[in-house]
Amino acid sequence: MWLQILSEILKLTVFAGLTLAGILVIIIWKRDLKTKVTYMRFLVQAAAMVAFYLLFSYTTELLFVLVVIFLLSIFWGRFFCGWLCPFGFYMDLVAALRKTLKIRYWNLQDGLNKILDKFRYALLALFVFLPFMLGEIEPWQWPLAKFLAGPFKPISVLLSPVEPLVIPWESTIKVYGVNLSYPYASVIAFYSGESYALLCISIFVALTLASSFVVRRFWCRFCPTGASFSVLNRFKPFRWIPLLRLNKVEEKCTKCGICKRVCPAQVTDVYEQKGGDIKTSMCMLCLRCVELCPYEDCLRLNLAGKTIFKSRNWLEPSKIE
Amino acid sequence: MAKTDKKYGAELSQREAEEIREAMKRASTRLMDEYITRMRRAWPNRPDVMQYFDDIAMLYGTRERELLEAKEEGRKIVGYTCMFAPIELILAAGAIPVRVACGIYDAVKLGNRIVPVEVCPVVRSTIGIGMVGLSPFLELSDALITALTCDGMTKLSEILSDKKPVWTLCPPRLKDSPQSTQFWREELKAVKAKLEKLTGTRITAKRLKSAIETMHRATRAFKRLQEIRRNIPSVIMGRDAMLVNQTVMWDDIERWTAKTEELCLELEKRVREKVWACQPDTPRVMLAGSPAIWPDNWKLPNIVEEASPQGVIVADEFCFGDRFLYDPVGVDEWTMDDMFNAVSERYLLPSTCPYFTSEDGNEDRINWLTAMIKERRVDGVIYHVFRGCMLYAMEYMRIKRALDRINVPIYYLDTDYTREDVGQIKTRVEAFLEMLKSRVEL
Description:
The structure holds 2 protein chains of 2 kinds. Chain A is 55% helix and 7% strand. Chain A is built from 13 helices and 6 strands. Chain A has helices at 2-31, 36-58, 62-76, 79-83, 86-101, 110-133, 144-148, 154-159, 185-214, 224-230, 258-262, 269-272, 288-292; strands at residues 173-175, 178-180, 244-248, 276-277, 299-303, 306-310. In chain A, strands 4-3-5-6 form a 4-stranded antiparallel sheet. Chain A has a two-stranded antiparallel ribbon with strand order 1-2. In chain A, a hairpin with a 2-residue loop joins strand 5 (299-303) and strand 6 (306-310). Chain A starts with a helix and ends in an 11-residue tail after the last strand. Helix content of chain B is 52%, strand content 9%. Chain B is built from 18 helices and 8 strands. Chain B has helices at residues 14-42, 50-57, 62-72, 87-92, 107-111, 121-132, 136-140, 151-160, 178-199, 205-229, 238-247, 253-273, 299-306, 336-348, 363-376, 390-394, 396-405, 422-439; strands at 77-80, 96-99, 143-147, 166-169, 284-289, 312-316, 380-386, 410-415. In chain B, the strands form 2 sheets. In chain B, strands 2-1-3-4 form a 4-stranded parallel sheet, with helices on both faces. Chain B has a 4-stranded parallel sheet with strand order 6-5-7-8, sandwiched between helices. Chain B starts with 13 loop residues before the first helix and ends with a helix. Classes of the chains: A alpha+beta, B alpha/beta. The A-B interface holds A 99, 102-105, 110, 250-258, 261-262, 272, 274, 288, 292-294, 313, 315-316 and B 175-176, 178, 181, 205, 216, 219-220, 223-224, 326-328, 330, 332-338, 341-342, 345-346, 349-350, 352, 360, 363-364, 367-368, 370-371, 374.
């Protein structure tokens, strides 16, 4: 009984903390104009995490959630990864910690980064077809829907980055009645079995935290969920579909290389491409490059052809505020 | 190395050098006075703040005394010839950056004793002032940072190494590839170590951050002034704006920033009150190519703005002008590593020096020019080339083709450090301006 009360209190503290963080973010945002998009993104990410918690507490139909996210991502591209994904949020928090400690990050080599980008499709294929490979279940005899809800649940693999830290269903790690989780924790728990679950999960958590401390947004570089979001952008007939596009005006660009350096996913296309829409599947639309591009109107975010956010001379305070 | 053991001979005797120096100093002072008077005359309601820039522009005046005092206090002065020298690092090390490349006509004749007349006059002139010790900045600097860009600059750094310790920077000719960026970073690291050794101050993250922020403020003031130059009709004469842009290279940067902001405030008031500096149909000219350097090589700006029909210079593409402060250092994280990368990339990647090449034929420079032409609403471009400046001369056709596509006239003007062709250039420029004027639509 009072465990429940405790969990309620914990939830409330989380909410209060998030609200306070939101207020703090707004204060900092007002003071430091140069990094306003980054703070805004933190706010949206925190809100998204809470939203996912609420979403999961209302519906346990993961398939439904995944389908909705997929449908939206047809129009968003990887906007989801940059702005909503809780796993990305954790990695950004780790990076923020590193920033405050003033420790440098490491860049992956561009070639390796591009190989990792291709590798995500292999991972995607592996996760989707893994259940078929395991002989004893013979999934091809099942109806598709049943298969998707089945024990291997590739949906849960694809949806794993979305898992908030506290989940409303039973999980392997339980502290005072609160079901704690971490991206991919349930999948790892499932595949590693009861006895090793905790060990495997803690190794995974430690590895991802450490890697994102050293390399910015490490997991995002080969996350299979990201691949499924960007897969439509890769095929020419579907290129017109995404509503959100990062656009570059070649003339205004002086090739100063800021966009390349500040990109947490080390996308080089924004720097290399000669104007036009940026099409790479590596871009998460986190808009860090647009924020730090010092040339008026050079980089911009278009929503259905209409510019909603663009680069400006950030040495001057914004006229909008 | 013993003082007599000079690599590039042509020694002047002490007495001879002193005589020439005094004579040239007098001539140069008179000339600077004359040019400033002419600038005042061409712009009747010149703001009072411009007086400050006039003072700083007088090379043998206020600034020389200040530098002498600073030197007596034990501060180090670091000269540089190219805009590849990292100002942020010099400031962070506690040294004073001053630019030493020069535009004094008479010194060219001295330079001719060491290098042939085919060499770029900026180089010959800098050699000349070095021989007689004419430039206070070159004389006072404790070390020189030179960039091995064009052939002239490369050999100039050799010749100047007779006089001062010279730290060379070698920018890679192709700037896009990761290995170039890495190489350039290593070059700057070497210079950073030398700077730290010279001043005895370690460049810490805190110091570098404050230096970057100082330059940010300067860039901000600079951009504000450039924004004002976009106005039609212009509220500031081009020569004055160019003078402001050039003084930052030897002035105290923070004071310059404050004064430029003051000037901008005054000019913004004039924009609101519609107090123009020239007629609305004055052709808006952009100068491109080899730099016009204060004081003597004010020939072309003078001619353009005193010609009839008069033109107004609204933009220039000089490393001694609009390009110097155009790009801010964009720092992602304020760690030492990232700040240093940001500084090093800022000096290499956005540079549109014709020294660079790329597979797309120096497209960066074309983009920069077209963007500038559209932004400042330029009517025509005068392509100013020194005799002997191969890089700018050879890129002319490329620029012309690109500007033909956007229908902006461009005029090739080759000249030298000499006063003999003033009349001839005046005629040519006036013809060009007349053509532009007939195209100007109100």
